[in-house]
Specification:
Helix content is about 25%, strand content about 20%. It has helices spanning about 65-75, 90-105, 110, 160-185, 260-265, 320-330, 335-340; strands spanning about 1-5, 10-15, 55-60, 80-85, 125, 130, 140-150, 150, 200-210, 220-225, 230-235, 250-255, 275, 285-290, 295-300, 315-320. The strands form four sheets. Strands 3, 4, 5, 7, 8, 9, 11, 12 and 14 form a nine-stranded mixed beta sheet that branches. Strands 1-2-6 form a three-stranded antiparallel beta sheet. The longest helix has 26 residues, at about 160-185. Bound molecules: 2-oxoglutaric acid (AKG) and fe (ii) ion (FE2).
Length: about 350
Amino acid sequence: MIGIYANQARLYLEMAAEPLSNGAAHQSVPGRYILPVHQRPSYSGNGKVAPPMLPVVDLGGDDDGRIAEEIIRAGREFGFFQVVNHGVPEEVMGAMMRAAEEFFGLPADEKMAYYSTDGKQLPRFHTSVRNGAGEEFLYWRDCLKLGCHPPEWPDNPRGLGAALEPYTAAVMAAARRVLRLAAVGLGLCEEHFEGPLSGGAMMNVNHYPPCPDPSLTLGIAPHCDPGLVTVLMENVGGGTMWVDVDAAPGGLVLNFGHQMEVVSNGRLRSGEHRVVTGARVARTSLASFVWPELWCTVAPAQELVLAPGKGPLYRPYSYGEFLGVYVAEAGDRDAIMAHFKH
Ligand SMILES: O=C(O)CCC(=O)C(=O)O
Ligand SMILES: [Fe+2]
């Protein structure tokens, strides 16, 4: 079965197959998952420079000025950082990860009950995505998409909803604190990101089974996340970016998305990342996205375009328009942003 979601000029193709997480362990990489040489993980022709290590921001304590400064410094250089003392209880994180892993352990037909190529459907299971832009190969990933606001989850496994609600509430509270601190650090009013600008949220529950030859595959192509900020939890240290990200014990990884780069008028970076696969153990990651409501107008903050010589770098647009371009350009950072440059 091949589903085609046509959006503007490009096609976004997905091929429904046996979920990667089912069946016997793979002995060799099936040909349809093998990347062309110039897109393989070790190919260095992409000119990316890996940061030496991911900054760690301690959200505990009440020295908000210091924390805001650290968030801005990390956001300016990498768009990626870890947070500790983030207020999400370890047992809530553990219960959510266990429920996520239980889903991927279900028989294929029980997972495929949630399979859809309709990008708007939640919850939604998909597997082995083929990006648009003429790519012939598939990515090594199963993914369950969940609603966070309001929470929407599959009935199977039974405990998933009970784990999702407290996890999402706590993660959203941590994300809101980071957004308030980022606003202060940028010289904006503390509430700048509140309301419709951060009114949408959903989660990718990603699962990457062991791959017989990780040098030939990718779990996810290089991309920036579309929203404001993403909060990531992973079960095993993995290779999320061009530098391996091993989350501090109990820590969460945050990255800013395209909307943060626009609202901050380029002062904060949207962190580009990709996912490499691993040979030995399956990796599960939970990526919680905070983003604007579809109808919300996004534009650089007025305060950040008034300084002499600092005009707006981007034009105003609705988040719905942005998402259409994001899909049509298959996540290609520069191609996407070219649509919105002033
Ligand atoms: O699995 C990961 O580490 C990252 C997942 C990701 O980039 C995404 O879901 O957008
Ligand atoms: Fe991502």
